[in-house]
Hints:
The structure is a single chain. The protein is globular. It starts with 16 loop residues before the first helix and ends with a strand. The chain has helices spanning 17-26, 171-174, and strands at 54-60, 63-65, 73-78, 82-92, 105-110, 115-118, 127-136, 142-153, 204-208, 241-243, 248-251, 254-265, 271-275, 277-279, 288-290, 294-300, 307-314, 321-325, 333-338, 345-350, 359-366, 371-375, 378-382, 392-401, 416-426. The protein is mainly beta.
Amino acid sequence: MHKPARRPAPRHARPSHRGRTAALAATGALAITGAGLFGLQSAPGAQAATGPTVTQDRLAPATMVAGRAATATLTVHSSSCFTAKTVGVGVRDAAGNNLDFPGNASNVPICPWSYTFTSGARALPAGTYTQFGFWQDFGGAWHNLPSQQLVVSGTPTPTTTPSATPTPTPTPTQAPTQTPTQTPSATATPSTPAPSSPIAGKSLTWSDEFNGPINWGQRWVGDKSTAYKYGNHNPDDNKLDWLDPNNVSVANGVATFTATPGSNTLENGKQSWNTGFLTTEGSSEGFQVKTGDYAETRVKLPAGSGAWPALWTWKNGNGEVDSFEYHPDNPNLLELTNHVNPGNFDYYTNASAVAKDQWVTIGTYYGATSVDWYVNGVKVFSDGKGVGANFSAYLILNLSVCAGQYHPAPQGTAPITFAADYVRVYR
């Protein structure tokens, strides 16, 4: 599911996230939770002693404003890895009516490291509600986590509502636009944001806006990488990739990565797919990110089965920090991983910001003591591990193709595409 096996096989000195994925698949979906609330079915009786325990670390918001749409955030971890069929945030009014936040997540791996779910947005009338996280196991039982009050105050005054007008009913126009960073996703090509970093004091030091042809050789290399066991392909990492610079094209300020069935047979006997790949490794510039940098890309997530896009780093057999990995079978989930100093990673889920065929901005701060991830300019995860004071590594932006072990392989021979608006690094 992840990329640690990009390293040549002899270099595997620590457990890979692919091993974690296998553990998730092998683990049952039972866990201890609180008793059921407000009519939601709860797993009957006590759980087996060997089952994992799910702990709720954070639930937000605790307050909202009437008529103003907001999302809910739930952070949990478990005593051991398992996969939940559904995760979401429930809301009940005083009469017990179901007013849950929309956009539940499906097939969610929950492990001893934190998992954060972000719902879709909704508005509520003024009042006091009961709010709680919940998850469903594959047996169909619902499990409720500890509840808290959600207080929704009265309609805001015009001075606190940025879009307020003299008309008495501004609310209906606010809900669909409450997250401005999502607007570009509605168009075929994004409205490119002006260069800026969410981290104060950083200035743009390197970028490719994809406003012209790919600068092969000087800026990018597309046919080989030391991250791939055989240079231009790497079947040992559950990939069908065969790197081909012809599978990256630029038009209208957007780089499009395409994967198409190839003519080469991989070492495992499977048919390859020609894939688009960009790396700064081996280019004449040889640009590398280093400790203290912030790297960002804006991408349109793919929908095709087998797609596996990512922005990541690599150097000397490791140096890997995954700004993101994405698989369309988990359409609202980004995988955020630091392999340099492993220990904490996040399956970030946000139904309103992460979706197939939708534009999203993803950034990573390579801190010495913590790597921080940003989605649409908002910090969503800090691993508390960092990359150390002397980190440096090459950038890679690419579209891989899954071979089917952990995520579905391509269905048929139709091309798979993935688009990027820019790659920027601030220092």
